[in-house]
Write a structure and sequence with these properties.
Length: 77
Amino acid sequence: MKRHLTKTEELIVNLKLQGFSKTEIAEIVFRSPHTIRTHINNAYAKFGVHSDIELSNWYLENILSIGIKKLLQDKLK
């Protein structure tokens, strides 16, 4: 399964993970709340998750762990 988000999906997911509501995100990126919901649902489908909590957990397990591993590797060099 491909897990690449579009730049817009990535922006919206990052804002969502920071705690912004769909309505707040819509105001920030000048889109309708319905469009924001569509982008979030697309991200859910790409990552095989069904809720914001699952999305947060997936992000922590997969994205942050990559960054932490890289930091540790750089420190050990």
